[in-house]
Specification:
Length: 189
């Protein structure tokens, strides 16, 4: 394609570009193999409705600005829903699910075998684990960021501690008095 110094279209060399026919090639999509494709940019350049291609020379400039993605996001928090869904939130405003916490029930929870301080495992007495999602069926819910409270009565435990301390002091005093009596008796002889 040739343009003049003003950027106006002059002509195309060659005048038309014509492809060869497909000939006897059989096309699997049902297209006619005898058709020809002609490319002709020598458009009618006369008259008010001329549709000629034009080339303009200019410096680079941005003519449209659009965003089709997200800015970089840093992890700002992890939330766990009552249904067990673990979701990560990022500084760019997005939130992505990471995983789901599974809960299990046993036919006999008292039959679980303790394998550590707070670790338990399935045993013949407990039966097989039945897995499910939190908040469905007989499964409980998950309270994220909640502090588990003690399962003892603190008042009763404090009273028992004070009683044990008094008993210890009384026994200690009795042993001290017994020791002093033995010392005194041994000194009299």
């Amino acid at each position: 394609m040739l343009f003049n110094t003003s950027g106006d279209f002059i002509e195309q060399k060659p005048g038309t570009i014509q492809t060869a026919a497909f000939g006897a090639t059989i096309l699997s999509n049902g297209a006619d193999p005898t058709q020809q494709v002609i490319i002709d940019f020598n458009l009618d350049t006369s008259g008010p409705n001329s549709n000629e291609p034009t080339q303009f020379a200019s410096n680079f400039e941005v003519t449209a600005l659009s965003q089709d993605g997200l800015a970089v996001g840093r992890l700002t928090g992890i939330d766990i829903g009552t249904d067990g869904l673990v979701r990560a939130t990022y500084s760019n405003g997005t939130s992505e699910p990471l995983s789901r916490i599974t809960m299990v029930n046993f036919a006999n929870e008292q039959g679980l075998q303790q394998v550590g301080g707070t670790s338990w495992k399935e045993s013949i007495s407990s039966g097989e684990a039945l897995a499910g999602e939190a908040g469905s069926g007989t499964f409980g819910t998950i309270n994220s960021s909640a502090l588990e409270q003690a399962n003892v009565n603190l008042t009763t435990e404090l009273i028992d501690l004070i009683s044990a301390q008094r008993n210890f002091q009384a026994n200690s005093r009795a042993l001290e008095v017994d020791n002093q009596l033995n010392q005194t008796i041994l000194q009299i002889r």
